[in-house]
Structure formats: C-alpha cells, structure tokens
C-alpha cells in the first residue's frame, strides 16, 4: 500500500471543492476504473508520474459528472415557500379571532420533531437503510438528478441525499420562523387555547410545563393563571386579557427546540457519516492502485501484501455440487449457477439478494473473471450475501497464470477480498 503521505495527497485531490464535489469526483473515478480499458491518453512526457499527477491527468481528460443541482435548489426554494406560506396561513386564516396555540405547535414543532425521529431511524437504525425499495423519495431524486449510473454505489449516494433532504427541511422550519417575526412585526396576533379533549386548565398547565421544560431556565412556561384566562371556545372567543406575549415566545422556543435544532443535529450527523464513509471508501479501495498500475503498464512497485486470514489463496475445481455457484457479469458461463449477478438491472439483483432465494445451506462461490475490475456494485452484492450466508468465496476463472496482466489483476482481487473478509480462490475446470 502507499504511504500515509501519498494516501493523504490522494484524499486531498478528491476533496477539492468540498464534500459534494468529492463524492461525484470519486464516483466518476470508480466508474472509469471499472471499465475494461482504463488507460489514459499517453502523455508526451516520458517519465514516471506520482499518484496525484496521474489523477490530475485523469481529471483533465475526463468529463466529470455534475448532478442536476438545479433540482436541489428548486427543492430548497419550495421548502422556503411552503414554510413561509404555511406560517402566514396559520396566523391569518382565523383573523380577527384568536389563534389556537395548538395549531402552530403541531405544524412547526411536533410534526417536524416526529419526522426528524423517523429520518434518524431510517438513516442509522433501520436494517433496510441501504435498500432503495424502502426510500421511494430518494429513488425519485436519483432519477431527477440523473444519477442512475451511481446506484451501485448507493452506500455513498444515499447518505449524501439524506443530508440534502435534511438541509431542505431546515429551510422549511427556518422560513416559517422568519415569517412569524416578519408578520408579527406589522400585525397584532393574539394566542389562546381551545380543546375538546382537555377539559380543565390544570391538565393544560402540566402539558405546557412539560413542553417548555427544555428552555425553562431562559423563559418561564405559561402560568396556570394565563392558561385559565386565555382559554376560548367557538361560542365565546372574547379573552379577558390581551397580554399574551408568553404564548408567542413559547411558540418561538418550541419551533427552535423541537423543529429546528433536532433537524440541524441530524443534518450534521448525516454529513459527518457521509464524509467518514467517503474517506474510508477512498482509503480502502483498490481503485487508485489499479488505475496507477494500468497507466504504468507494469507490476505495481508497491504490491499489496495481505495478512488477513480470510484471504487464503487455493485451487478448486469447477463446477462443484457441494457449493452454491453464483457468477458475476458472466451470462454465458457454461456452468449451472444459482444466479448471474451484475448483468441485469441492479434493482432486480438487489431484490433477489434481499429475498430468501439468496440464502444457502452450503458455501457460496462467486465466479469472477480475473480480467474484470473489482467494483462497488460487487462489494454491495457481497455485503448482502453475507447477511444470510457465512462462507463466501471469490473464485477467479478462467486462470492464465502466465499472463502478466493476470498477475496484476490477481493482486487487485487479493486486496478486494481482504477488504470484504472473503476467501479468494483460483478455479480450474473439472475434466
């Protein structure tokens, strides 16, 4: 492996311009390396280049993907408009009568908090967090942003999309709060409370004390006297007091504490998770090594050494009735296999990998053409297979040990197997 200094330089190359640019620069690079012919146009300079120089040459010769960011900007504008108009509607729909405090609390504090908690669950805790079938909105966004080619790398793409959605949700709550201050500056709004189910002021006092607890050290909760005086009904809506400033301050604090802060924290967590996964993917991937080897057209000067016990090179006979055989991007293979992955639509492969059909009671061998390049899509397939199967091996077939390119590719597959905790074998046809 390269030194820490070189690894840091490679990471800095991809992170130029921010995390979003880093994501799509890296995904473009991975797609380029996954192609059969990933050699750049030869340079006129006849000398050895550093890793970053090769990467810079790649960037100059390639057309990098730019997501349709106009869709994200439009989504942000829509969130701002909805937040502003929703608050304006709540404040003015019942004028000149009094505004029931429960309505803005529900729309701008409690509902956003509930959505934030559900987003946290689906982003961090759900066992199906990487399954696009459970994220129809994200699937729609991928199509609108023209990012379908990056679906195989959804372990990086989905955290980025979730981060963008939370950013838009923050704009919704912030614009609603801004609308309140703008409208309240030029209009006198009176708040009270009314309820069919809450029949006494004591219960309301206890509820408001609990709701206001996070900021009780800064502002007092609505008192029992204020709650009693500001209750109104549809038949009699004349309040005996006009000083209801405690109500609007309680509303503002509730929007900040329950509507904005949790979303802000979740957005920061998603951003941190996304950047951490992206850095790890860049550091642990063999793509840069394969790319440099392809440019030099020689055996790597830093061959990969593996001390992982999961990677045990061995020779096996194909086909095998004692194992479940799965082929990777080899629809014309002459063996009987349980499934050929990587040749059809990725969503169909993912559906099969998540079904009971991918669970076997014997070891699983994935037959790989050694001249292929390890990809993120294959890594995702292995990860899904490992959820239902304990013994998984990669089997290189056909073998041509005398070919110098095979020796280079074998090192790449060794590194790939090491990273994904699977065994690497060489397959020979049984005569």
From TrEMBL:
The keyword Membrane applies. It comes from the Bacteria. InterPro entries: DUF2868 (IPR021296). The chain crosses the membrane at residues 71-93, 99-124, 160-186, 246-270. Keywords: Membrane, Transmembrane, Transmembrane helix. Pfam families: DUF2868. This is DUF2868 domain-containing protein. It comes from Methylophaga thalassica.
